[in-house]
Design goal:
CATH superfamily of the largest domain: OPCA outer membrane adhesin/invasin
Structural class: mainly beta
Keywords: Signal
Radius of gyration: 37 Å
Shape: elongated
Order of helices and strands: HHEEEHHEEEHEEEEEEHE
CATH class of the largest domain: Mainly Beta
CATH architecture of the largest domain: Beta Barrel
Strand order of the largest sheet: 4-5-6-7-8-9-10-11-12-13
Number of domains: 3
CATH topology of the largest domain: Lipocalin
Length: 437
């Protein structure tokens, strides 16, 4: 009855799995106990194990199997740092010990004195220094800055990387009047990415990166035959007096600008010089300006302008990976993801030749996200200089763009509530060089 209820609740497969695990556990316990007793019988003192003989002079034991005898080394017979002729301190290891002796090292204390890393070589006094003394960055008596006294040999280093970015903003000017309005697109623009950093213990490091400045801008214009009426409610109390003269628009023009720059500081964790994890803080400044002008067939003109400012503060994580493809060449991967608080502001204003004006502004706080993906190829020209070229894509969400605020005024006659729910892509290529010293 009990088995049936278990099957009904968990199913026959789960029951069989649990039964098999129980049998396996029981077998392991039984075999472990048997192995323990066998080992005890085999390596007991000669008084309890008749087939084991001990030679006091050599401090070793032997096991007989039939007519053959096999020597067994005891723990007391293994030479250690405490044995005569051995030196326990790595930094004081004499040169003669390097040629034939077994170097005893203890790098566990590096977790507190070297930040968790044991840089340098485990080749005795040649690399000198002791982790306990904090001399993890020197090769002992040689006075070099190429490592410490424990772990794997490596050079603490600093680096500077300068890249030229050729990126395109994937936004365009909105369609405010009608289907005849031809919306232009942003062009590719030049910017930069400058990174400086250091890895003092070959594992833990820090770096700072500046990106930008980018200034994307576009201009577009259209003419309308026959004239078009502005797509808005003329009786609206905000835009009614402003838009009254423009029931027969014959031409319009638009100017759209977007500015971007950022600065960040990261802690890094480097593994084998082919993987780097990052975590840190970043500030991103993104501003837009959209100016829209139009005129009617009697020569009257009007200009509407919308300006937004996005100030993003947040944290990000990242990963850089290298994949060797040749003796000096590497494919690489670059990824970043961050969460931000966006302090956004909007300012919409306008005027016409008849003297009517429009003014509306607002500010608010919103969550934003920034994601970056890139790939490229690196080629080492030497130990210090590396060239790189690649492509990448950025995605920014949770921002206030200028055309949306202006559209809110024009379409609905309301600009008192800022909209912070837009996003944009940036794609492009880059190339640069890194100096490592």
């Amino acid at each position: 009855m009990k088995i049936r209820s278990i099957k009904k609740r968990f199913g026959s497969t789960a029951v069989r799995t649990l039964a098999a695990c129980g049998l396996l556990a029981g077998s392991l316990v039984a075999s472990n106990a048997h192995a323990q007793s066998g080992l005890v019988n085999a390596f007991e003192t000669p008084a309890k194990a008749t087939n084991v003989q001990q030679t006091a002079a050599s401090n070793s034991r032997s096991i007989k199997h039939g007519d053959q005898e096999f020597a067994v080394m005891t723990a007391e017979g293994v030479p250690t740092a405490a044995s005569a002729g051995r030196v326990a301190t790595l930094g004081s290891m004499p040169t003669s010990e390097l040629n034939g002796g077994v170097t005893q090292t203890s790098c566990l204390s590096c977790g507190t004195s070297c930040g968790g890393s044991c840089p340098g070589g485990s080749y005795g006094g040649m690399y000198g220094g002791s982790c306990n003394t904090g001399s993890c960055g020197n090769y002992g008596g040689y006075g070099s800055s190429m490592g410490g006294g424990c772990g794997i040999p490596c050079r603490p280093y600093r680096f500077a990387m300068v890249e030229a970015l050729y990126m395109e903003h994937q936004g365009d000017a909105p369609q405010l009047l009608g289907s005849n309005f031809q919306s232009a697109e942003f062009d590719f623009e030049w910017g930069s990415r400058i990174t400086v950093g250091m890895v003092p213990d070959c594992v833990h490091g820090m770096e700072t990166t500046f990106v930008g400045p980018f200034n994307w801008d576009l201009q577009s214009s259209s003419t309308f035959t026959p004239p078009l009426a502005f797509d808005t409610v003329s009786s609206d109390r905000l835009l009614g007096p402003f838009m009254a003269p423009f029931t027969d628009v014959v031409a319009d023009r638009a100017t759209y600008e977007a500015d971007y720059w950022s600065i960040e500081a990261n802690k890094t964790l480097v593994g084998w010089d082919v993987a780097k994890l990052l975590i840190g803080g970043r500030y991103i400044d993104y501003d837009e300006l959209y100016r829209y002008g139009f005129s009617n067939d009697t020569g009257e003109q009007a200009v509407l302008q919308s300006e937004t400012e996005n100030s993003l503060y947040g944290m990000q994580v990242g990963l850089d990976m290298l994949f060797p493809t040749s003796c000096h060449g590497y494919m690489d991967f670059r990824g970043r993801a961050g969460g931000y608080l966006n302090f956004a502001e909007s300012d919409v204003r306008g005027f016409n030749t008849a003297g009517a004006t429009v003014f509306a502004n607002d500010d608010d706080l919103e969550l934003a996200g920034v994601f970056e993906l890139g790939a490229g190829y690196r080629y080492e020209l030497g130990e210090m200089l590396t060239l790189r070229a690649g492509g990448e894509m950025w995605y920014v969400t949770g921002i206030a763009d200028a055309p949306t605020q202006l559209s809110n005024v024009v379409r609905r006659g309301s600009g008192q509530s800022i909209a912070i729910d837009d996003d944009f892509f940036v794609i492009g290529v880059n190339f640069g060089a890194q100096m490592k010293f």
